Amino acid sequence: MTDHGNGRGPLHLAAAVDLPGTYEPGPYAELALLAERGALDFVTLGDSFARPGPDALAVAARIAPATGRVGLVPTVTTTHTEPFHVQAAVATLDWVSRGRAGWTLDVSATEAEARLFGRRGAAPPEELWREAGEVADVAALLWDSWEDDAEIRDVASGRFIDRDKLHHVDFEGRTFSVRGPSIVPRPPQGHPVRVVDATAPPAREVAARHADVALVRVASVRQADAARAELRGLAARSGRDPGTLRVFAALDVDLGGGECAAEPGHGGGPLPTAEGTVYRGGPVDLAELIADWHRAGAVDGFHLTPVEPRRDLERLVNGTVALLQHRGRFRTFYPGSTLRDHLGLARPANRHTAHTTHAALTGEPS
Known about the structure:
By secondary structure, the chain is of the alpha/beta class. The protein contains 11 helices and 14 strands. The chain is globular and about 65 Å long.
């Protein structure tokens, strides 16, 4: 493992704002605003067909007007859902939030969940993640089906769109087919940020090919370093620039017990459990762990899930994040207005205009 000084890039931080049993938007907005006060890159909202609760994407859209900078990343299940509707909903979230949207791609693997829809049975994880990759592919095609200046809104002529700047999509996947163009104009970010939990092997190829942010549940800096190297290697072999993939260590955090003086450093470190990797300790030791892992170049950032949402997120922002900011390890303000700005990711060019732009810059024929 190589020491990269201050890490391979700026430190990124994200947090979950899940509130089991809560259906009103107010408490979610309160937690998102708390995360925004700490300049966190984004907050996530979990979702699953296997448990009761509000639709995460709808909650994110509802709280978007109440927030101004923090990214909003709901979980979107790609199994049993219509890819055309998924991309339209995510694009709409990007418009509502003015460029702060992302989505965590997930799959639904149980027979009980399949019976909720009655369209097909459960399938192996490998098959479901291949389908998730195809959903990511067709979403990008549909987002690019509108050029950025396709909307003309010419009142005098009554023309809303320039039809020459809409592009046909005809996608055939293994389990679905989609025709376009989209019904939603190209999102402010071009492509809203894609997040994939790459801990399970079937998800890694999808993360390497499609994710802007990959989450890995690891219990040590060496595991984190190995996971990051593997994902970046897979990304390079798939033909993409591995520098465009951000790898976050995913930890559950329990900050209720104060600093753990009995064990030196990091409150004893995170521990693997059946539910995931859990850190138990205090805000100061957590700040030390975050700084050490990032300084070693093992991760680009952290996604932290509070065990007790309100208590632990408040201690995370007011304790851990404040200490990292005081030491110059984490920013004190947002570098831009979009989630891609926060993550240091360029806005993707539209595939239908990129060749024209290249020709204009180089003098080559388009």
